[in-house]
Fold these 3 entries.
Entry 1:
Amino acid sequence: MKKKTLFPLAMAILIAAMLAGCGNQGSTTDSSEGTNGQAALKDVTVVLDWSPNTNHTGLYAARELGYYEAEGLNVEIALPGSGGADAMVASDEVPFGVSVQENVTQSRLQGVPLVSIAAVIQHNTSGFAAPVDRGIKSPKDYEGKTYGGWGSPVEEAIMKSIMDVDGGDISKVKLVNIGEADYFTAVKRDIDFAWIFYAWTGIEAELRGEPLDMQYIKDYSDQLDYYTPVIVTNEKTIANDPDLVRAFMRATSKGYQYAAEHPEESADLLLKAVPELDKELVHASQKWLSPKYQDDAPRWGEQKPEVWKNYSDWMYERGLIEQELDIDSAFTNDFLPETN
C-alpha cells in the first residue's frame, strides 16, 4: 500500500460533483418490504481508496459479522473507479468512501462537499523508508540520495519540512517520479527511498527479510500527525439521510473495534473476503496495526479539531492551499456512537 495523494484530481472531483447535480440519489436502494414480508435491507456502497488491505479490515469485519445487516444495510465494499473514491462520494454516486485528510482539505477549498466522519487510524503511520544498506538514518541523510515519488507537491513539502528540522538541504536530493512502480522493485532498480505506510510495505519488508530504516513524518512535527485514512461522506447525504450515516457508522465502529480487539480473527475475515491477499502479510500487518486504530483516543474514529487545524495551517503556510480551511465543516464526530 503506497502513500497516495490526489491533489491533481481536486478539479476533477469538483466537475464530477457539478455534473451529478441534485438528481443523483447515490448508491443506496431501499424497499419497504422484501419477498418474505420483512423490511428489505438498504443497498449501500462504500468505495475504498486503494486495493483492500488492513486499513480496511473494520469494514470487512462489519460486513462479515453481520453488523451492517443488523442496521438494515446490505453493504458493498467496492474498489475505486478511475476518478477515485473522493470523486465518487463528492458526486453522490456513492454515499461513503475511504480518503485521507489532505484530500478532504484540498477538496473543500475547491468547493467539493466532502466531509470526514471518522479517522480510521489515530496517528499517521506513514514515513520515508529506505533499505538499511543506503545508510539513511535521519532526514539529513536524504542528501545525495534519490527519492522515488509520484509527483505530488505535498511530497516535496513534507520532505523539506522534516529535513529542515534535521538540518538537511532538500536541493541536494534527486527527485524522480516512479508512478505506480512497486516499492521493492524501485529500490533495487533506481531509487534509494520512498514514502510508505509501515503497516503494509514496512511489514512486507520484514517478512521478506529486507529491513528498512524508517523516518515517521509525525516524529518531526505535530502538524504532520494528520489523519490518514479517513471515512468520508458528502454534505447531501448528511442533510438528506442522517439516519443512514448513523447506522453505517454504528456498524463500522463495531467492525473496527472488533478488529482492534481480535487481530487474528479479523485478519481471517479480511482474507475470507479477499482471498487473493497474502495470508502471512495480512496477519502480520493486522497484528501491528490493530492497536493503532483507536490508540489514545476515547473511542474509535474520534477526530480532534487541532489535528485538522495543524495540518491545514501547515499546508497554507507552504502554499499548498490558497486559503485557510474552515475545519468545522471539514469533519464531524456527530455520527460516531457514544461508546464502541
Note: The longest helix spans residues 242-261.
Entry 2:
Amino acid sequence: MPESFFTEITIPLQKTYNAGHLFPAVLSPNPNKQPSNLSLLTGAIKAHKPWLQSLLHKSGAILLRGFPVTTASDFNDVVEAFGFDELPYVGGAAPRTSVVGRVFTANESPPDQKIPFHHEMAQVPEFPSKLFFFCEVEPGSEGETPIVLSHIVYEKMKEKYPEFVERLEEHGLIYTRVLGEEDDPSSPIGRGWKSTFLTKDKSVAEERAAKLGMKLEWTGDAVKTIMGPIPAIKLDKTRQRKIWFNSMVAAYTGWEDARNDPVKAVTFGDGKPLPALIIHDCLKIQDEESVAIPWQKGDIFLIDNLAVLHSRRPFNPPRRILASLCK
C-alpha cells in the first residue's frame, strides 16, 4: 500500500474543493517506518505511480515534503522515477539554464519581479502536461510559487464576464513578442531567439517556429514572433471541465522589457485589444483563489499543467528553484 511509505498530511494554507479534495495534496514520509532515503523514495514512486497519478488527477498538484532530496541530481532521480517523457523547452519565454539531466533553473528574472499566473507554455501548441519544481535553496523571504485551479478561474470569469469569455472562446488569442539574439536575464521574458528555438541558424529557427504555427518577422538580429490565434479556453478531457488555459494575464501585465510593450503582447484572435479592467480583475480573481505555500528546502511540487496555473512572488535572495517539464 502507498500509505505504508507516504503519509498524506495537512498544512496551513491548503484549500478544500469539491468532494473534499485538498489543494494541493501534501505527502510526507510515513513516520512509523524506517527513515527514508533517496533510493527508497524513488522505488516507492515507481511502485505506486498509478496511486500518485490518481492523487494528482484529483487534486491538481502534489507537494512532496520532508524527503531526503537535497541536490539537483537527487531531484533529477525523482523526476526520472515518475517515468514521464521529457518535453524540451522550445518556444518558452523564460531565461533558464540547464543544470543536470532533465533539470534546469526556473525563471531567472530578477528577484524583485513578480511573474504573473500562467499555464506553462500556454502560448504555444505543444506544452507540458506536468511540471516539477524543486526547492534547492530556500528563499531568504517570500518567493512563493502560488498555484490556482484553472477551472475555478474559468467559472468565476464566466459568471462575472460572460460576454468577454464568449469572445475568448470564439476568437482565441494572439501573442506577440520581440526576441533579441541572446538571452536577457534582466527580463522575465528575456529568452533570446537562439535559446527559444535551440539553434543559431535563422533558417532552422524559421522551421521550428513554423512547426509551432508561429510566424517570424526579422528586423536585423531581433525577431518578432506572432503566435495564434490559439484557444484561450480548453476542455480538460480527463476531468470533463473547461479550463482557463492561456497566458493572457501574464502577457498583458508582465511581458515588459526594452523590446516589449505588454499591452500589445496579447490581443483577441481577431486582433482587437483586450479590455484592461477585465484583465486586471482576472488577476485579482486568480490571486484570491490561489494557494501560496512558503518553500522549504527539499520540497518538490508536481503540478498538472492542464489543471493548475502557477506564478512567482518577488523574493529576497537567496532562492534557487529548479524545474523539469514532462510531456
Note: The CA atoms of residues 27 and 64 lie 5 Å apart.
Entry 3:
Amino acid sequence: MLKVKTPKTAKARREVEKRAPKLVENRKKTLILQGTKTSNVLNAVLTEIHHLKKESSIRYTRKNENIRPFESGGETSLEFFSLKTDCSLFVFGSHAKKRPHNLVIGRTYDHHIYDLVEVGVENFKTMESFSYEKKLAPRVGSKPFFAFIGEGFQNVEELKHLKEVLLDLFRGEVVENLNLAGVDRVYVCTAVSSTRVFFTHCALRLKKSGTVVPRMELVEVGPSMDFVVRRHRLPNDGLRKEAMKTVTEQPKKKVKNVSGDVIQGKIGKIYIPDQQVGDMALSHKAKGLKRERREAKANNEANEHGSKKKKADSE
C-alpha cells in the first residue's frame, strides 16, 4: 500500500488545499510531454500548442518510457506528473508504426485520469508557413472565439467528446466580462467526416462596413492540421457527476439587523442608545429658559415686597 503523507506545517496544508478540487475552479494549466519515440511533425505540434498556451502550460522535452495511456498501469507516471506540476490538462505525443503521429489529449480530476481522446495528426502546417501582416498576430493571453462547423459535433459521440476536450484545452481563463476589442483570434474546427476534423487558427481583421458594427474577416495564421479520431474513453457516471458540481448561487453575506417579509418587504432594526436628558448641556438662549428666569425673578420680587410690607406694619 502507498504511504499517505499528511502536511505537518500550515504552509504545506495551504498548498495542499490549493491543489484540491474546488467548486469554483481556478485557471487550468496544461502539461505537454512526449513518449519514448516521436517524430519531427509531432515535436512541432507539441511546440506550437505550447506557444498557443504559453502562459498556462508546462513543456517536458525528455522521453518518458512508462507513460502508456489507455493501458492499465501505464497512467501512474502521468498522474504523478499531474500532481507534481498541478496541471489538470495534458497533451501526450508518441509515434509508432500502427499509430503514426499520435496525440493523446486528456483531463484529470483530483490528479487522476478523467477522460482521454486519441487523434492522429495529418497535413500539419506550422505558424511560420503562413504569410500575413505581423500586426494581425494574436496577442498572448487573449480570449479566443470557437467555431465548430458540421453536424458531427452534435450527432457523433467521438466528435462531441473531442469538442469538449478542445474547448477545455484552448479556451483559457474563464471570465465574466469580456471586451470585444480584445478578441483577436478564432479556432475553426470543421467536421469533414465522422472521424476527421480540420483544425485551424485564424486572426480576426476588422474592416469598415458603413455601420457601427465592423465587418470581420478571417486571416489564417496557423497552425493548421487534420485530426483523425482513433480512440476515446469517457468517464464513468459517478466520477462525471462529482466533477461537474457547480455553485448555483454565491452565498450572500448576511446583513445585520435586516430581515425580509413577504408583505412588508425589507425590514430593518435601528438601535438608539438611552438618552441622558439630565446630563445634557442646555443653551443660555433657550426661550423656555428665559421665561422660567423671568417668572422666578417676578416671584422673588413679590416675596421681597410682601416681607417688607409685613415688617412695616409690625413697626
Note: The CA atoms of residues 78 and 200 lie 28 Å apart.
